[in-house]
Amino acid sequence: MTTGAMIIGIAARPGRTFRTLATEPRGLASGARTLLAVGALYALTSAGLAAAGALITAPPCLVFSPDNYYALQAFFALPVFFLAWLAAAGAAYLLSRRRSQGTFEGMLAVLAPALAVPLIVIWFFAAALAVFLALGGSQEEIMALTTGPGIEQAVAFGYPILAAAWLIVLSVLAVRSARRVGWIRAAGAGLAAGFIFLGFLIVFIR
Predict the structure, then answer these.
(1) Residues of the chain with pLDDT under 70
(2) Which of 1, 54, 116, 163 gets the highest tally of CB atoms within 10 A of its CB?
């Protein structure tokens, strides 16, 4: 399955797409390619933000200077995405192991695009900021739009929250499709997977 077809399928028919990925021979390769492609987008955008002199808008959880955080993120974004995917899939697989079917490879295959596709939504904001700064805009102008109450602030804060909620929903569907378990077990394992992955992003990605 091509990356484009997978993204469209997950947006339009997630259950069917996940079931196909979980059983097709090259499902793992297709899923991994999609997740790593999104990770590469974040790395490239981080490099663009660093070149434009952008500063992170939230305090770092790591002991890195805010002044060069995006330059460092350009190097560690892709490994973070990869490790977060493995941790999320491992947790989902273990939590759904009782009276379940499917393999760990199938779990990896379906969870990769379930995590990656919603992150494309969030990535558009970072990419737009990088382009805006490259064209001569200032980060202060963007901050001024989102600091006061209004539609701009609502979009800036609400859009990532909706994307995170979508990621959780897709994670639950992915677990149910890969492991063929009931909704309660799928919800528990999917929530754990989604929150583990988002936890990595909260700690590392700005």
Answers:
(1) 145-148, 150, 152-154
(2) 116
